[in-house]
């Protein structure tokens, strides 16, 4: 082999080798992942708080290696699975006990029962609403600045992270849909969507001011299809869902798309991505039961009864309790969400 052949070998293949080694060695696609949200992502932040939105008991966690951790289903939640898809070898730590070393790779601020509006979470006691999650993030940033030596180094690190934000489920489920169905609602669906989006806009700008640049913002799912809605209002004619609820929630998503577009137009270097975790042509795989909860649910709050029964064929169920998807459903949702999020890390493959 001549020297020049050798050189070719070196220079053509090294970039590929570097990428390949990064993936094989388990280097994540991004250095850090910060998660804001509600019970769909909460990984234990509520368990030492005075709230009814707390599920650190069996059968929750029945399929999770560590058992019940405060996650609101039988196994991994969507944030756990997205972290795996991003290549993290450990789940992102909950804010409640993230260590100084943990915070460099991100923090999960999620809190079951929380909302965009502060009054939403109050219905469940002491949960962490989006405003307070942002305050917690600012505490983490101070710790990070201390660790890295300065605020500007911390900001540089924070600009490379991916952020996921999923809020609004409880603003609708606990704070609006019941009134809407009572027909004495003081606000039209559009008025309520506008109120939420105005608040959300301030909150997402605050996250940007805190150094976030790559942000996946989750659309709301079809809340009219969850067991709690079906039990409360009954399926609409010709549908397996409560279509009035779906239509109300759809207003939020339409307004959210406009907000994302505005944020991208007005904030320098911002990359906000409208992210969905469902698709119209999705395959439900082995999931055949799309309407019944897998666990025995409480008639009072729709959560699994502590120590109660759970179905044995959990991979065949879409819903774990009256509100939350099973791990099997989360696996499908996370892959769809991940593909929506991919513009946020496509340009940062292996080298950061
Ligand atoms: C904090 O970490 C410990 C040990 O890793 C774990 O047992 C505990 O449940 C965690 N607390 C929360 C709130 O997640
Ligand atoms: C927990 O919250 C409930 C309802 O808000 C309140 O009545 C109770 O005193 C609180 N308990 C503690 C220990 O703070
Ligand atoms: C469903 O259809 C039945 C029969 O056509 C009708 O009486 C009922 O009012 C309809 N319910 C709704 C919610 O539209
Ligand atoms: C469906 O179930 C079969 C049999 O348990 C399993 O081999 C397969 O991987 C499952 N498919 C999906 C998409 O989960």
From TrEMBL:
- BP term (GO), one: lipid catabolic process
> Which residues, if any, are the signal sequence?
1-26
> What's the superkingdom here?
Eukaryota
Q: What is its main location?
A: secreted
Q: Where in the cell is it found?
A: Secreted
Q: Which UniProt keywords apply?
A: Hydrolase, Lipid degradation, Lipid metabolism, Secreted, Signal
Instruction: State the Pfam families in the record.
Output: Lipase_GDSL (PF00657)
Q: Which GO CC annotations does the UniProt entry carry?
A: extracellular region
Sorted alphabetically, which CDD domains does this protein's record hold? SGNH_plant_lipase_like
Q: SUPFAM superfamilies from the entry?
A: SGNH hydrolase
Kindly list the GO molecular function terms attached to this UniProt entry. Answer: hydrolase activity, acting on ester bonds
Q: Which family does it belong to?
A: Belongs to the 'GDSL' lipolytic enzyme family.
Protein name as catalogued: GDSL esterase/lipase
Organism (species): Sesamum alatum
């Amino acid at each position: 082999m001549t020297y020049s052949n050798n050189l070719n070998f070196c220079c053509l293949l090294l970039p590929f080798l570097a990428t390949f080694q990064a993936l094989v060695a388990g280097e994540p696609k991004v250095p850090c992942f910060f998660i804001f949200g509600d019970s769909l992502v909460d990984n234990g932040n509520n368990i030492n708080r005075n709230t009814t939105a707390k599920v650190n008991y069996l059968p929750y966690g029945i399929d999770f290696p560590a058992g019940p951790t405060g996650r609101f289903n039988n196994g991994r939640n969507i944030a756990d699975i997205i972290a795996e898809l991003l290549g993290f070898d450990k789940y992102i730590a909950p804010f409640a006990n993230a260590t100084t070393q943990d915070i460099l790779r991100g923090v999960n601020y999620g809190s079951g029962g929380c909302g965009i509006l502060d009054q939403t979470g109050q219905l469940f006691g002491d949960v962490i609403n989006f405003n307070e999650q942002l305050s917690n993030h600012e505490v983490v940033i101070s710790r990070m600045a201390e660790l890295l030596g300065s605020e500007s180094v911390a900001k540089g690190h924070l600009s490379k992270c991916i952020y996921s934000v999923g809020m609004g489920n409880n603003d609708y489920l606990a704070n609006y849909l019941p009134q809407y169905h009572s027909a004495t609602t003081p606000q039209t669906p559009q008025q309520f969507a506008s109120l939420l989006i105005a608040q959300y806009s301030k909150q997402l700008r605050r996250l940007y001011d805190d150094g976030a640049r790559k942000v996946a913002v989750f659309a709301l799912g079809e809340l009219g299809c969850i067991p709690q809605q079906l039990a409360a209002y009954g399926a609409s004619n010709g549908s397996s869902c409560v279509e009035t609820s779906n239509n109300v929630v759809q207003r939020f998503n339409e307004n959210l798309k406009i907000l994302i577009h505005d944020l991208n137009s007005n904030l320098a270097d911002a990359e906000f991505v409208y992210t969905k975790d469902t698709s119209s042509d999705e395959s439900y795989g082995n999931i055949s039961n799309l309407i019944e909860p897998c666990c025995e649910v409480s008639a009072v709050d729709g959560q699994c009864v502590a120590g109660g029964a759970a179905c044995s064929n959990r991979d065949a169920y879409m819903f774990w309790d009256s509100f939350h998807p099973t791990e099997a459903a989360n696996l499908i949702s996370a892959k769809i969400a991940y593909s929506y999020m991919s513009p946020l890390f496509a340009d940062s493959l292996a080298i950061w």
